[in-house]
Design goal:
Layout: E1 3-5, E2 21-26, E3 29-36, E4 41-46, H1 57-62, E5 67-72, H2 89-102, E6 108-113, H3 115-126, E7 131-137, H4 150-161, H5 163-171, H6 180-191, H7 195-203, E8 223-228, H8 236-245, E9 250-254, H9 261-264, H10 266-281
Parallel strand pairs: 4-5, 4-6, 6-7, 7-8, 8-9
Antiparallel strand pairs: 1-2, 2-3, 3-5
Length: about 290
Amino acid sequence: MTVESEAAPPPARLDFPILPVQFVQAGEIQMAYREQGAGPATLLLVHGSLCSSLWWGRVMARLPRTIRALAVDLRGCGDSDKADHGYYRAQYVADLRAFLDALAIDRVYYAGHSLGGSVGLEFLLTHPERILAQVVIGNGTGPRPSFKSAARFERAQSIRADQSALRRFVAGGFGVPPEDELLDLLSQDAARSTMGSWRGFALGTEETGAPLHERVHAIEAPIVFCHGDRDRVVPRDWVLETYRLVPGARLVTFPGCGHNVHVEAPDEIAAIITQSMGESLGRTPGPR
């Protein structure tokens, strides 16, 4: 059973559609999500660290209405329950599995941004029968020097407490800073994330078993990696490390875009998702 609530509309002149929020009990937490479209194919959209389903608004507006698109809020983010624990990749996967089970959805196409991309790869490795194809935006899991630290967490705490610093932080995820209204909207959304989410962003999510980069070679589903050439969060080398390890993967680079490619280039991301779904189905989903 789901419960729906109305989301506050964005400024009228802002090209950023916002769908109503719905809720479903998924295991131990209540998860929020936004839904659009109807059809036999379901697309699961998963946001990055300190974001929410809100960030998928532009992409969802450009998807064919013959696709059932579900953009979910991970625990501690957006309107989902603000749990005091569970901010690691295996738990996020368990939450998403419970979310799909609660909605009686067996298999999905998946698109994930940043953290949502690595959660998707983990989901695909642990439950390969449930994901048909995946688009990964702004994520690389290859071996890298550690950039997570206690000092980074202290800085994250100070950013979260300072509205101006938070706006600069969010703006840093774009190749070209967004308009003020959108920056305000997304900064307010980031501020809603729990300290557990911020801790995971600063210190990293807990690994279970072998690291992802040692396992992605076993992926058989079609994967498309998308990366902005101005991404200052995830360097291109990290994306290349992962892309080269996944058999048959594709890599698409977006000139002039930063970390948030799905917000900066929604037409292109929607087209890549739709094409990926069509190729997996052996046909292209119908028009809007």
